[in-house]
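Render this sequence as a predicted structure.
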Amino acid sequence: MGRQQFRVPRSRLGQALAEGNLDWLTAAFAVSAQPLNHVLRRLSQTGLRRTLAGDHWAWGALGLAAYALRRARQPIPDVHVVRMSPGERFVVGLVPRDSSSDST
């Protein structure tokens, strides 16, 4: 009996690297945000858990650093500043972003 070989499916990025279409620098910047967010979340959770369990304080520092990086990578929502004088009224209406036609 021979050894069975299992083929691991490659991502598009891995496929492009294997074919030589991308260099390592381009590949480093092409990594999507989802895996990095997962790693940062995992590091912050592990750091907090191990610090609370009584392990070395460096785990807490690692968890806080991962949390800070994760928070810093989040997009800043749109902020609109309106200067108003006393007595003026300001009405806020919520409209879905993808509404292209007016509905009554």
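Summary. The helical segments are 12-19, 24-29, 33-52, 58-73. Residues 32-75 form one domain.
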